[in-house]
Amino acid sequence: PVFAGMKGSAIENFSCVIYNIFLMNCTWQAGRDAPADTQYFLYWQKSRDEEEMECELYIKDENCRNVGCIFQNVSIGMEKAYFLVNGSSKDSLIQFYDEYIDLYKIEKLMPPSNITVNCDETKNDCIIQWQRPQISHSSKDMCFKYEINIKYK
Question: Where would one find the signal peptide in this protein (predicted)?
Fold first, then answer.
């Protein structure tokens, strides 16, 4: 496809992460050949049934240019979410960037909670228990893998 806009003006290095169960952070860099006055705007659509929404809380760089967005109350659906970043400048047309992302693939999991350790010195054993971390995309028990590092003092 032929993209309208100046070559090298679209954003680069777009990435998003979901953390603390319902927060999402997306960041990008300005296109290397974008005019200095270029401002970028992020729109996203959680699924085809929902309407496209603009970012409400932009992250800005020292030149007041939007370089990211913080989303609150994000829930993960089954469909890929659609992200679109377009730009505007008084000097030239800016190319847009878009991407479909499976939100569950970008979730950074919380650590396990309520960790307890009970050791029995006579039997020379310990029982370690914990609750699985909360995740935003499912109430079902998923297959978690845990790694325990035990350091003897």
Answer: none
